[in-house]
Amino acid sequence: MTRRFASPPLYIQGPNLLPQCGAFLKRVGTCLAVIADATVEAIIREPLEQAAEESDLKLFFLRFNGECERGEVERLVSLCEGVDAVVGAGGGRAIDTAKLVGDCLGIPTISCPTLASTDAPVSRIAVINRPDGSVEEIRLLAHSPSLVLVDSQIIAGAPLRYLVAGMGDAMATWFEARACWHARGRTPFGETPTWAGISLARQCWENLRRHAREALSQAKRGVVGEALETVIETNILLSSLGFENGGLALAHAIHNGLTQIPSTYGALHGEKVAYGLLVQCVAEEAEETEEVLTLLLDLGLPVTLEDLGLKRNEDFLHRLVNHVFEKEANKLANEPVRLSPEGLLDALLSADALGRAAKGRGG
Question: How many domains does the chain have?
Answer without folding.
Answer: 2
